[in-house]
Write a structure and sequence with these properties.
- The complex is a heterodimer of chains A (about 325) and B (about 270).
- By secondary structure, chain A is mainly alpha-helical.
- In chain A, about 75% of the residues lie in helices and about 0% in strands.
- In chain A, helix 4 runs parallel beside helix 7.
- The longest helix of chain A is centred in the first third of the chain and has 36 residues, at about 45-80.
- The radius of gyration of chain A is 20 Å and the shape is globular.
- By secondary structure, chain B is α/β, with parallel strands linked by helices.
- Chain B has 2 domains: about 1-145, Rossmann fold; about 160-270, 3-Layer(aba) Sandwich (Rossmann fold), CATH 3.40.50.1980.
- Chain B has helices spanning about 1-15, 30-40, 60-65, 75-80, 95-100, 115-130, 130-150, 175-180, 185-190, 200-205, 225, 230-235, 255-270, and strands spanning about 25, 45-50, 70, 85-90, 105-110, 160, 165-170, 185, 195-200, 210-215, 240.
- In chain B, the strands form 3 sheets. Chain B has a 5-stranded parallel sheet with strand order 3-2-1-4-5, with helices on both faces. Chain B has a 4-stranded parallel sheet with strand order 8-6-10-11. Chain B has a two-stranded antiparallel sheet with strand order 7-9.
- The chains are: A mainly alpha (about 325), B alpha/beta (about 270).
- Chains A and B meet through helix 3 of A and helix 10, helix 11 and helix 12 of B.
């Protein structure tokens, strides 16, 4: 498949899944009335359902999926590690910890953007830590082990913060923060997350050419005028913005950033600058599909997004580990 | 729920042998705390649960502030040397089992789902405390209050109780019964939820209630309660300006009258 055909096919899939996401919901509205209501031409209740409940959910699924796909592709590029992914490296759980702290301290109630900013800060600290640990000569699996430890620490501190909350519902919500869900999100969340997701995407796109050079090796990249410090900074900032904003409103959704870049890499031709756009579209499609599946499989339970992405992603991860071992890189 | 009433009466009879009113009563449940504070003779009640002091859930937090409190562990309750322990059927299960093994009489009361069950429970706890007279007076006051707040004539606005995660109470709950008594139609019935259940926001909007009574929001923050500040909910339905305090309709006590009065006020505001 040519690169153009790949992008077109992915864009088509995103559009179809976006439409499906708008048409599926507990109220079981007929598609025609749903679409008219989306543009304000129906009864007040239907218009609210479409514009204030289903539309923000679909927008968030697409934007967050795209952000996670981009972040995964960029991290795999900068670490030159096929197993890198924000969820597996502890970046998502640090972002969730930041978000929970902003919520439970009342910071987010006083100043709404504090929520994504705190998640972004958590994600940035974790990303810096992982890049520091990665160093010039760390094995692929060593980095993942460090990520496992960081994830466990983030999860534990998150549970602690929720358990200490005066809110009786908060303690039960660790699952949401570790697994993610888009239920009952509103346009307020879209407004909160979208600017950060867009800024993150711009930063990661700016890193694309540097990442291309890095595929030839660090020395070659330096020879081509790529400053490794600046490249890393771009990727850390871009990843922190996308993963921070995504996690602040939807919780930590794992494996999207792992699976999607691998699926599109062969057809995209391997260069990060070509993988990034395809990974963004693929991530959007994957998260839209996962969110749709949560509503179709168990409409009356709040099935978590991370459950579905892990059901696909974890076997895929094991497959990658086995392949790495065969290639002797582990 | 006649069986529950019967079991209660039976348990009460076992707990308090005829003629011997317990002298040291300990309560480990929020609802029995309040019933005991309302019914016990001076000095008879020696400790209530720590929840009784929490004004969010206890309608008698000020009175409980003057009482010694316990945290419901078998060890601390046993150390108080009670001759009757009042407990709920849903919590402190291990404590109740342990106290029974130690030979301490325990009266367990289930959560009430109707005014009839609340009446039976007041009578049962009164009997267990040897305070039948006080229980009769409390029931008379409850009946008088209910009569004074009888359902007003006129339109019945369609109301939705809407709490964390979209929980709504149905007709077969204490809150549902009070909603009906206050002259309001509960949309839970139209949604086929007799006992209550989780209602997705979409379905609530399509059901289009005249009035929404949102649940209270606790300090801290939770995702479960975020649905109550969803812009679609705020724009779709009129939010009741006044609603019953949570503490007033958790337990089967005469504080239910305050909840009923608040519901009447919410209805009056909606009808205007």
């Amino acid at each position: 498949m040519s690169y153009g055909a790949l992008l077109a096919a992915l864009a088509l899939a995103v559009a179809a899944l976006f439409a499906a996401s708008l048409l599926v919901g507990p109220a079981g509205l007929p598609p025609g009335a749903s679409l008219r209501a989306l543009f304000g031409a129906e009864g007040r209740a239907l218009v609210l359902v479409m514009q204030e409940i289903r539309l923000p959910r679909a927008i968030l699924a697409a934007a967050i999926g795209a952000g996670l796909g981009l972040a995964g592709a960029a991290m795999q590029g900068v670490l030159r590690n096929p197993l890198a992914e924000p969820g597996l490296l502890g970046v998502s759980s640090a972002a969730a910890l930041g978000a929970v702290l902003a919520l439970q301290t009342g910071l987010a109630a006083a100043f709404a953007p504090a929520l994504p900013l705190a998640a972004l800060t958590g994600a940035a600290l974790a990303a810096v830590l992982m890049l520091g640990l990665a160093g010039p000569r760390s094995g692929a699996l060593g980095l993942i082990l460090a990520g496992v430890a960081l994830s466990a620490l983030g999860g534990a501190l998150l549970s602690l913060a929720l358990n200490l909350s005066p809110n009786p519902f908060a303690a039960a919500e660790a699952v949401f923060w570790m697994m993610g869900s888009l239920r009952d999100r509103s346009m307020l969340h879209v407004v909160l997350a979208l600017p950060f997701l867009a800024a993150g995407a711009v930063l990661l796109a700016a890193a694309a050419r540097g990442l291309d050079a890095l595929t030839l090796g660090e020395d070659a990249a330096a020879g081509m005028g790529v400053r490794p410090g600046r490249l890393r900074l771009l990727v850390v900032a871009g990843t922190a913005a996308t993963v921070g904003a995504a996690t602040a409103v939807a919780g930590a959704v794992g494996f999207v950033g792992l699976v999607v870049p691998h699926l599109v890499r062969r057809a995209a031709g391997g260069l990060p600058s070509r993988v990034l756009p395809a990974a963004a579209l693929g991530g959007a499609a994957m998260l839209l599909a996962a969110d749709l599946a949560t509503r179709l499989i168990a409409p009356d339970r709040d099935l978590k997004l991370g459950v579905l992405t892990a059901l696909v992603g974890a076997p895929f991860f094991l497959h990658l580990v086995l392949r790495l071992r065969r290639e002797g890189a582990g | 729920m006649r069986r529950a009433g019967l079991a209660l009466a039976l348990a009460a009879a076992l707990a308090a042998p005829a003629g011997a009113a317990p002298a040291r009563v300990v309560s480990v449940n929020l609802c029995t705390d309040q019933l005991a504070m309302l019914l016990a003779a001076p000095g008879q009640l020696v400790s209530v649960s720590h929840l009784a002091r929490d004004p969010m859930v206890s309608a008698m937090a000020d009175r409980a502030a003057a009482m010694p409190v316990n945290f419901g562990s078998a060890e601390e309750v046993f150390a108080l040397a009670p001759d009757l322990v009042l407990a709920g059927t849903f919590s402190t299960r291990a404590t109740v089992a342990m106290l029974r093994r130690l030979g301490i009489p325990v009266l367990e009361v289930p959560p009430v789902a109707s005014l009839a069950e609340a009446r039976a429970q007041i009578a049962a706890v009164g009997a267990a405390l040897g305070r039948e007279g006080a229980a009769a007076a409390l029931l008379a006051a409850l009946d008088q209050g209910l009569a004074a707040l009888a359902a007003p004539p006129g339109p019945r606005p369609r109301v939705a109780l809407y709490g964390a995660n979209g929980w709504t109470g149905g007709a077969a709950t204490l809150s549902g019964e009070l909603v009906a008594l206050a002259g309001l139609d509960n949309i839970a019935a139209a949604l086929g939820l007799a006992a209550g259940g989780f209602v997705p926001l979409e379905l609530l909007l399509v059901a289009a209630p005249d009035l929404v009574l949102p649940g209270r929001v606790y300090p801290g923050a939770s995702r479960a309660e975020e649905i109550l500040s969803h812009p679609a909910l705020r724009r779709a339905a009129r939010i009741a300006p006044a609603r019953p305090a949570e503490a007033d309709w958790i337990c089967g006590t005469p504080h239910l009258l305050r909840a009923l009065a608040a519901l009447r006020a919410a209805r009056a505001a909606a009808v205007e």
